[in-house]
Amino acid sequence: MNKHINIHDFTGDPLAEKALVAPAEKLEEIFTDIKEHMLYDHELHGCLNCGICTATCPSASYYDYSPREIVQLLWTENLEGIYEAMQEKIWACAQCYTCAARCPFENSPGGLVMIMREVAIKHEMESVKAVLRPFSRVLLKVISTGNQLAPNMITKEAFPDWGPDVSKVDAPLDILRKAIPLPTLHTLDTAWVVNLKTSVELFTIWEATGVLDQLESVDENLFDVVIDVMDEKRDDLEDWMDEQEDDDDDD
């Protein structure tokens, strides 16, 4: 027997190309999480609808994105519009905060977008998974090495829009890197070598602040790989510390 569904319990745009229908209770929960964020009142003060933020926004020139729309949706508590914006539009913001610098009301649309992104992660929205999926390699690089990019990730094939200067990538990078005075830069696998103890401390911070929990909700496979890397690094650090104690005892 099919359960009767009351259409009034849901909200969405039935005329949209892809209807966004969600329980009204869910929309209320999402907005409550946004509004109760510790930075919400700091980032939103009002809106004259002047459009200065959108006029100076780099992302607005290339994407279907408007900082003014984000502020208006939150200021008017348009729950349906907020939910829709969290499916795609909030991911177009480049976080340059030009909007915050120009707003006469001292609003920060970029800051509000960050709050909405955090809430989108909390609610495990599909938009989060879609946006982060192409960056899984970079995320793994950051979490496992403390670096975002490495020299061996830069290839001509990956950056065809760089123009003729990209030919310089063909230079013997391993030799050039060894010529750098700092020994921590003598590697192509990472931009620099991060101390083992520092890596473990970073992992511990990500654990304590819930970053790893969020990662698990977004990409479980990547989470499993990161945990394996973390366990290995912690074992290596423990072995190193034991060796130091043995050396001290010998002395």
Keywords:
two-stranded antiparallel sheet; mainly alpha; Fumarate Reductase Iron-sulfur Protein, Chain B, domain 2; 251 residues; 2% strand; disordered N terminus; 2 domains
Tell me what the structure shows.
With 251 residues, this protein is mainly alpha-helical. Helix content is 52%, strand content 2%. The protein has helices at residues 24-35, 40-43, 52-55, 67-75, 79-85, 98-102, 109-122, 126-132, 136-145, 173-178, 196-208, 211-218, 220-250; strands at 10-11, 22-23. The chain is globular and about 70 Å long. The model is unreliable at 1-5 (pLDDT under 50).
Write the topology of this structure.
Layout: E1 10-11, E2 22-23, H1 24-35, H2 40-43, H3 52-55, H4 67-75, H5 79-85, H6 98-102, H7 109-122, H8 126-132, H9 136-145, H10 173-178, H11 196-208, H12 211-218, H13 220-250
Antiparallel strand pairs: 1-2
Report the total helices.
Answer: 13
Structural class computed from helices and strand pairing: mainly alpha
- Using the CA coordinates, give the radius of gyration: 23 Å
Compute the number of structural domains.
2
Biggest sheet descriptor:
2 strands, antiparallel
| N→C terminal distance | 79 Å
Mean pLDDT: 86
- What's the count of strands? 2
Poorly predicted segments: 1-5
Helix content: 40-55%
- State which percent range the strand residues make up: under 5%
The strands making up the biggest β-sheet line up spatially as: 1-2
Order of helices and strands: EEHHHHHHHHHHHHH
Shape, principal axes of CA atoms: globular
